[in-house]
């Protein structure tokens, strides 16, 4: 088997979405969730060869997770089934039109038991890009060690390592996160963060330019700062480049950051220059917010231009 | 049993909501509706001890009404079951994105048969606040007499009486309403109205300041004028205070006025000053319009700050 | 305009169906209900020219009723819109797998205000068959008088009058029903009843043969006794003929009697002999119970043979 | 039978709507679709006597189409049932909040087999207005010939012929369309087009004023240019008149053009002057975009003023 | 506050029901589940005064649980909210028409952290009946100790203690269960078990009569053996009495045993003799299996006779 | 790439299922359908390595088909995307509880354009079993030629060829089918048919034993006769063996035959003897009819024993 374009790992969760307040009950819809699997799907839809690794419960919910990943063409050959632990869950309620609230049921889950052994074979098989997030090391000691090992091994074997900081305040404190993520960033070529996450891979309280300078000094080649509806900034040794977001009517912002990352890495795999990579990044971000779900609205390659120059209320027929 | 914080009475209806034009058929969803029960729920969610009184049909629809009130922690011990009359109904269709149309099926309903006897025990048990609306006296002669008796008895026994004008043009004319509501307002400490309802508790055609002055002269302590997306004005003998609405994306404005009232009365029960009461009033109003349903989106006490400083598309995780 | 094949009149209701206990709330589905409109639809689906007459509320629910009747090809040109009265409603809950419970909200409804004037034009236009039920005269004094007038006028002008007893115990007592229905039956050529309804068109407590003999003696030509899963018996002056029910898996028995009646009258209009009319009657009854809804599963003419010789679990492809 | 107010013909499709990306599967809802049937329904709802003609498959989907048209009071007496061809279908997916994507399955459909013979009787019976669109001639050779024949025959027999250009780029090229539509327009009294469709009934590449001048020169009395959210312009020999759109929250723009046309023609039938016709046109357009579906939200006559002077979030009770 | 009729405690779960295989995804519906809360609801519906005690998570899912219990009129004043542990969950899939599969996510849940301190106040307040199940002691060490303490304290203070064995093989082995449940049974007046659970409160491998004899010898007054569709047997010192099940079409057997228990205890509270208690037990069991859900179909007092003498396909109107 | 366990080819359709009569409209659910893909999924769920080949439309519906196949772990690497033809569709309505009606929209579909070139590579790669059905050759001339070529090439290269007769009377006549299928059967080792399909692979009108004898004489090793609820008979040169169906409550018989075939071939791939293959065949058939959908209820390997010895209404917890 030849090396895949992108390898990523983490916890894939079963997300149960309520259309309104959860306390009211009613019907929940099942979805696949997880920052890394979102990125994997984003790239697979664009035709890249992608593999996802992790531990998945050996029951119907685990089966559900695998069905979704396979449906999207993400390789799952190296997934470990865990017979002893349940699937990680996430309850997501649309509390108001503007506010989504998430509750995790992932303590002790199959996914959080990730360990180095689960990654040996796929990392050994190689990949052009190895993508990791700051969520996985927050899940357990063994997952933290696995992430560290993967970053180190991956970068040493010449993979491009990308790290999305993705701070989850319900999983750990900023201090705990910084102690782990800052060293991790040193293995990465690409670091992706929102503006308020930058100091988690730098000195506490450092401002954007200081934090970025520190990262570049430690060998990171590109630092991407996600700015939501304001687009993004990309820092390299050559300076900074800002890109505006693609204007769309936003209906669901969950997953936008992962889509942005997927777009950027797709541009990298296609050999685009920085401007091209950023353009694809914000394009995927726009697709993510313009449709419901974390990843369901992401484009296939032939759809990449679908949002170009269209106004509100367009019909293609 | 000790006196409750708030006692209210009126008709609780079964609301049947259609997502689009009713004539097209399809699925209707059942909801509890009623201005007074909306206020009761708003206060109960914030932890106040609340009781609702009224006549409820002795069939499955009546059972539904009671299940909803009990679920929300509203006391229903003094509700009268009426074996001879059907539940009052309300058909609510979303005619366009901007226009909701309501049709009542409440003539001859259990709720409209409310009478003084139904209120004797709960009014006798006492309450810190007695809340009434201008809907109940429009339902029947006996309901009108019951409302008058309650206002008089309540104010005489030292309860704070609040009156929400709540004009329903499909139930009676402005003239008929004025003849009943203006005398009623004289028993109230708090009168709540939208700008175009003010002259129903004053002289016909009087402008806002004249109408308010008349009310204050007749002993009303606070006059609240609801201004929708523009917030509200509160008049006392000390002058007028305006408060802006909390900015949210509005998806359903039904129930906003009742939420505003619930917030104001909750602030009163908590001993807040006028500014604090108004702030809570507009906060509850914002929750009401930011979610679907008349009361389903109202906050629990720990959620009161949820809308503070959040922008569009926020996710709490 | 030429005379229609069948004219019928009564109250068409909006039926709100709950899949389980109504007190639990949830989604209700809207349906057209009414014994006479069920019969009208059954005949219209088979290609007969049919008109239905009645009073329909001048609002969205009335519009719904007309949309359904028109969709099914039932003529509604002589329907009276009533601006002052609401639509009659019916709540139908599937209380258990075996037990359906119905609650009417039809007191004071538009449909119950039917009067002679509403029927003058359509009865004047004529019809081959005039179908009436024992429900309409239970609705109001004016509806009772209208039914009596129609039966008398129809039979006098040479229409075949058919009467389905259809006793509704929630609308009137057996005694009240008998006082009205027994005289009415004397105008009918065809009387349809379940076994326990026969004495409502005869002497109180009379057994089947006595009741039937009395009807035949008063000029009724055919008496049809519906036996549910056991089929039906038809009495004429030539004797009695029994027909078995068509075997199907029953999922919803509501509307089966009306389907039976429609089948019988369709056979009459097609000039079939008694055996053929009964066969069509039980065939339509079988369609009614084999599908959900009061009339939704009734066959078009090309589907009449669909249940012939098929076993459980058949697939036509 | 007296002549109807409006006669129109074309293909009525079964539209299968997905709430999100179609590739994700899930539930599709069935709707009636078709520019001509949309116009027919728009006029029937306003009380005009309307007939629609076309070929409809002789199966359940064809039955569905007829049930919808009949429900709306559109005459279907002259519809031809086609036993050999399937129903035309249309898959409509809400790809993003702003972008609707349509896929046709209509090659070889019953509707596309329309021919002159199907139109002889209804055109012979006459109508005040004959409405045609630029979609029908794109469906097949026989449909093109039928459209040409109808336009010619209709205009010769004194019907007001209206033509909505309605270019469908998935059915034919602009060149192919122009070759057919430009001659067709010469039979029309009213030509309706969006700004970028005008040169399909004129010279290639001609600007708005040139194209309009050409049409007026060839005998067209009124040219209506639809401008979406910007309203419309009407050109006659007396000059040009612009009308603004009615401001509403738009939720679904599909069908807006057909609604506009229906409103204009309704105004014509009611004898309104140009300003009145345009006002009704934009009113119906507003109803169309303010509700879901192609035609489901169109107003009955008593609802025409429903959007007047209402702000966001109004409730009528 | 006076003592309630029945007090029970345990874990109330949020049940997520899938209509088909869970791995296929789709919509899940939320329900309240838990053997003890099922019994509590069964009794509350019949008008008994009932309280339920347990630990409930301090989040939206916990709120959901409380809303359901309150809706049903079950007292929850002594419930402990647990801010540190999540709600216990249960995934229930209808794997085939005949086979329901349950997966628990309850390890470490709020409910499983039940302890003696949580029960002190309610047990101190007293109750006529204290109901416990063999599920609670399987949840955790502290829950086991709480159950033991409650049984001992309750029986010592003169409450009638009832114990439903309710073996859950996914929570513990038969051996582990027997070691705890056999001593527990010695405190009970009523022991309820299915035939294959009897030896969990007696000697391993003992047959029904031996096991029952042992229980009666240790002071149990009544042993109820649930036989599903075959009804039940009741053993007392006076001998054995068998009762047949009420015949209904079964659509969902989950909750049948709890309904049986509720019916028996209701009969006890009403002072019925053994025959009357058993009749009510099988009546509630029949309601449970004849409707969907664990408890949703249970009867109110006026519905107790609803299943009497009705055949398939009955309609009450 | 090593050879797969099973290779199959044909048309995979998008099935649109209506819960009741299609003419009534409402919501349709999307499913993957196709006899060959059903068999492929049945085997993939049991862990066999399976590939499916065919032509799939290059649009969203084609994407849907591939997502479903990939989700189930069926190899689709050799699928041809067809940019010029639409997806084949199938409308499936539950006409009555016992009767399912299917309408195809597959004339001119992508799938029906299958040709030899589409099969060269996968057939060249080899497989232990090549499965074909009598549906594919009915789709088009090129599909017929492709089927013939595959059967011949497969058997010549030593694959076990299995043929399921699967007569579709809406696609071709029995005569046309026989002319193609009888020669095809001569290439097969396993022939599967229902009793009334046997003479389509033998002489017209021949009875079961004659038809089977003819097949065995022409080199077929095993003839499987599917008997629905009565199980199946297997003929080999050693004689005949009958197997009973596994008793379950049947809710949807569509797909039962394909499940049977998948079970048999799975047994073959696992090296089971005839009794073991038949037992697995009827087990999969039972899973198919016990759940909704064509293949959705099929078991994973660890679920094969799930139906053993269970009675109605079992719950696993």
UniProtKB/TrEMBL annotation, chains A, B, C, D, E, F:
A Pfam cross-reference name: PfkB
Domain Carbohydrate kinase PfkB: 19-298
One MF term in the entry's GO annotations: ATP binding
InterPro entries: Carboh/pur_kinase_PfkB_CS, PfkB_Carbo_kinase, PfkB_dom, Ribokinase-like
Keyword Nucleotide-binding appears in the UniProt entry: yes
Superkingdom: Bacteria
Keywords per UniProt: ATP-binding, Kinase, Nucleotide-binding, Transferase
CDD domains from the UniProt entry: KdgK
Metal-binding found in the keyword field: no
Similarity comment: Belongs to the carbohydrate kinase PfkB family.
Name of the featured protein: 2-dehydro-3-deoxygluconokinase
Organism field: Micromonospora palomenae
